[in-house]
Write a structure and sequence with these properties.
164 residues; alpha/beta; Rossmann fold; globular
């Protein structure tokens, strides 16, 4: 059965990259762009694993964690803290707050996928392992190119509007 992962990240580029890699690895992905949306989506559809940016608008990752852990169905679900803030004590604070693990950005996608497989107690088959190694750079570069392409496509439109 396909596992579902909720990814809550307010930075579009980071969220899109993580979701693209997870989709390519065979996971169903639920996306949220802020803490309030993360709570609503987690309550609407059960996730097998949750990845939360610690510092998001409306409700930060710690608030989302508290709300989800209050739900009986989320007490045993791995909830992973994700942040660019790698200050001393952040990891300890996240773990002490109830996060299963802490990942600092920039995230190495191959490491994230291996870790997720471990948290979900999955053992990828030989084909999945081979594809993971062969496709990692291609997936990452494709996702980055898609995001860059979308931004570049928007730039001429913005420039044209400014020139009118």
């Amino acid at each position: 059965m396909q596992k579902t992962i909720l990814v809550a990240e307010d930075r579009d580029t980071s969220r899109e990259l993580i979701c693209t890699v997870l989709n390519a690895a065979g996971y169903a992905v639920i996306e949220a762009c802020d803490g309030r949306e993360a709570i609503a989506r987690a309550l609407a559809k059960q996730a097998d694993l949750v990845i939360l940016d610690l510092y998001m608008p409306h409700t930060d990752g710690f608030g989302v964690l508290r709300r989800l852990r209050a739900e009986e169905r989320y007490t045993g679900v791995p909830i992973i803290a994700l942040t660019a803030s790698a200050m001393a004590g952040d990891c300890e604070r996240a773990i002490a707050s109830g996060f299963t693990a802490y990942i600092s950005k920039p995230v190495k996608m191959a490491d994230l996928r291996r870790a997720i497989g471990g948290w979900l107690a999955e053992a990828p088959g030989p084909l999945a392992q081979t594809n993971a190694h062969l496709m990692q750079d291609k997936l990452t570069n494709t996702a980055i190119d898609r995001v860059k392409g979308a931004r570049q496509a928007e730039a001429p439109i913005k420039g044209a509007r400014q020139g009118e």
